[in-house]
Design brief:
The longest helix is centred in the N-terminal third of the chain and has 18 residues. With 240 residues, the chain is an alpha+beta fold. It is 28% helix and 17% strand. The protein has two domains: 82 residues, no CATH class; 117 residues, no CATH class.
Length: 240
């Protein structure tokens, strides 16, 4: 089965990448969500909403992607509701943005991993200077892998997964927009937890429910007839 082979390939790639090591002064704990910090921010958000009737969020365009739409504005929380922004927050130089998921029904503090947009910005810079085609293989209609060699890379650029040790591919749409491919994480999570999804439903919410980090900068995913993740994308329809 193709997904079993793909999972093996990604596992081997992860082992190789892990063996490359990292700077000795690099604090790996800074890459992990902190349960106490999340709880502290959640309490602050709850108290702020109780006092004001609104959520402490930044103003964003209505069509902003749902996973980065309701970012927490710590200027509204500090110092009355929380002493300072969390140490791992973007505002303190960390890799996470704190956001609100399900703001209307059950406002829940979640995280956005900023390593993904940083990598994609680097690729976009190469795109703007490239005279060569950027598409490589078609994944689904309007979504492709990237020909990294044609834009000056010696190897494919990937994004570290916030959920596993996997390195995730970056995909490009026919409009030239970049997205993280979470399909390997989705497949692995569904297999590990024996989950059968309904075709047409967005299975990214499985990751939202299970983890504190949301699958930001991604396209919607559903399942095919084999219960395997597949991208569902129509450029004529705006994402929620």
């Amino acid at each position: 089965m193709k997904w079993s082979k793909l999972l093996l390939i990604f596992s081997l790639a992860t082992i190789v990448l892990a063996g490359c090591g990292s700077p000795t002064n690099f604090d790996q704990s800074s890459l992990r969500p902190d349960v106490d910090m999340l709880a502290s921010v959640q309490r602050a958000v709850d108290e702020y909403q109780k006092d004001t009737g609104v959520l402490p969020i930044k103003t964003r365009d209505q069509d902003t992607d749902i996973f980065i739409k309701y970012l927490i504005d710590f200027d509204k929380l500090v110092p009355k509701y929380i002493g300072s922004s969390p140490a791992n927050a973007y505002e303190k130089g960390g890799i996470f943005q704190y956001m609100i998921w399900d703001p209307e029904e059950n406002p829940t503090v979640k995280l956005v991993d900023l390593r993904a947009p940083e990598r994609m910005r680097e690729v976009n810079i190469r795109f703007s200077a490239s005279k060569y085609p950027q598409f490589k293989e078609k994944i689904v209609e309007h979504v492709y892998t990237i020909n990294f060699e044609n834009i000056g890379y010696k190897e494919d650029v990937t994004v570290p997964s916030p959920y596993s040790n996997n390195e995730l591919p970056i995909l490009v749409t026919s409009e030239g927009n970049l997205y993280v491919d979470y399909s390997i994480d989705l497949y692995q999570y569904m297999q590990d937890n024996n989950i059968t999804a309904t075709p047409g439903e967005d299975i990214r919410e499985l990751l939202v429910d299970a983890y504190s980090v949301v699958p930001a900068y991604s396209l919607p995913y559903t399942v095919d007839e084999n219960n395997e993740p597949v991208i569902m994308y129509d450029p004529l329809k705006k994402e929620k």
